[in-house]
Each structure stands twice: as structure tokens, then as C-alpha cells.
Amino acid sequence: MKKTLLVGALLVAGVVSAFPFRTSCGKVLQISQSIADHMNNSQLAGYLTDVNSGACPQHAGSTVITTIYSH
Known about the structure:
Elements: H1 2-15, E1 18-22, E2 28-32, H2 33-37, H3 41-55
Antiparallel strand pairs: 1-2
């Protein structure tokens, strides 16, 4: 029974995957992979810049450079 629950939990974690995003103020946020799947890199960079502004209001007026690493 424990093994079944563990395997089920791993499958759910794989379906609801997220990637970490470190903001300019040092917070690490988990962004849903399903959001990223429906955007090109330019749109994703804009979205992450908006997320950064919401998470770090003290940096909202600053120029933020968003670098996306993909493989």
C-alpha cells in the first residue's frame, strides 16, 4: 500500500511539474510548466518580469534582465 501511494505521488508530481525562478530580490518561485509550454521565449521573459515586479515591489521600477536557460 505504501509503495502504491509513493508511486502515485511521484506520478502526480511529474504531471504538475514546475520550474524554479529566482527573482531579483532573491525569492525562488515555482512557475508551472504548463504556463511556459504555451509561450515563446519572448512572452515567457515578459511574464517572468511581471512576476518579478509582483514579488519584489522595491525593484518594480528597475530594469530587470530575465535570462531563460532551456535544454
